[in-house]
Write a structure and sequence with these properties.
The protein is α+β, with helices and mostly antiparallel strands and 297 residues long. Helix content is 19%, strand content 33%. Helix 2 crosses helix 4.
Length: 297
């Protein structure tokens, strides 16, 4: 079998009899690549000259980019992308592109080329964030923004945010990334303190989102479900949890869609604390589900 596969990669001038992959015209290879994912194209580029040529074709990579990829490029200095091939533009945009003073990032999923976004806690309006009696900024490598907001104690808990962006047509999910307890390193190992963690089991937190074209979603989650304790403690404590707020649909990148979102627990009958707020993510809905199931990496 190894010999037959080896023969397929040789052309009519090779030692093998009959046509091989080397005889396929580059234009035909490019047509096939239109149906493959970027990682698959890069792997096949190693086969021979025709595959390498097709794997660098602008027409192939143009099809992998979102229709409004120029909007993403406009977030970068022109010298970063001028004279780049479409393949290099895809590679550039598949890395996080910061904007809004670095508090937001947008990037293309490396497999599907679809637009994803994250918003740092520093890009959110957090009630009481300037008062160190309530909140502190904690540097950490566990956040893509390298810092999270840590709540020690507060009575009025409210976090709001908004973003206006020309999202390509798709169905998107918005979710908050939160962590109960304060994490730290001890003797090189990760540990958590729950000294300030309280109040989240009394009443749920309300999450909401709305869009500029009238879409709305809301839900409630109890962040600290003490009735689900097991041998390892509360299963929500000490772990990063993604709280899905809802979905919204974009039919066209123009005009730009404005998304507003929040999480609140403003019942002042009790205090709450011991919560880390990392970021908000906006991801194509089915892409997020496939990643959670391990279909995409």
């Amino acid at each position: 079998m190894g010999a037959s596969l080896s023969g397929l990669t040789e052309g009519s001038n090779g030692s093998a009899m009959g046509p091989g992959l080397g005889d396929i015209p580059e234009s035909c290879v490019a047509c096939v690549f239109l149906y493959l994912t970027p990682p698959e194209i890069c792997n096949l580029a190693r086969l021979n000259h025709a595959f390498r040529g097709a794997a660098s074709s602008d027409s192939v990579w143009e099809a992998k980019l979102p229709s409004n990829y120029q909007d993403l490029l406009d977030l970068l200095p022109p010298e970063r992308y001028q004279n780049l091939s479409k393949k290099d533009i895809f590679a550039l945009l598949s890395r996080p592109v910061p904007f809004d003073d670095g508090n937001k990032e947008v990037w293309l999923d490396r497999v599907t080329g679809r637009v994803c976004m994250s918003i740092s806690a520093k890009g959110l309006a957090i009630t009481g964030i300037e008062d160190r009696r309530y909140w502190n900024w904690v540097p950490t490598e566990e956040s893509r923004f390298h810092v999270v907001a840590y709540l020690q104690q507060i009575w009025w808990f409210e976090v709001d945010g908004a973003v206006k962006f020309p999202f390509p047509a798709d169905i998107y999910t918005l979710f908050f990334r939160l962590h109960l307890g304060r994490f730290f390193k001890r003797l090189g190992r990760r540990a958590c303190s729950f000294e300030h963690t309280h109040g989240w089991d009394i009443k749920p937190v309300r999450f909401e989102l709305s869009t500029s074209d009238g879409q709305q979603a809301s839900c409630e989650f109890c962040l600290d479900e003490t009735n689900h304790d097991d041998a390892n403690g509360n299963h929500k404590r000490g772990c990063w949890i993604e709280y899905k707020v809802g979905e919204f649909i974009v039919t066209d990148s123009e005009p730009a869609t404005e998304v507003r979102f929040s999480m609140k627990q403003i019942d002042c009958t009790h205090s709450k604390g011991g919560l880390c707020v990392d970021s908000v993510f906006i991801i194509p809905s089915d892409l997020r589900e496939r990643k959670r199931k391990g279909i995409l990496k």
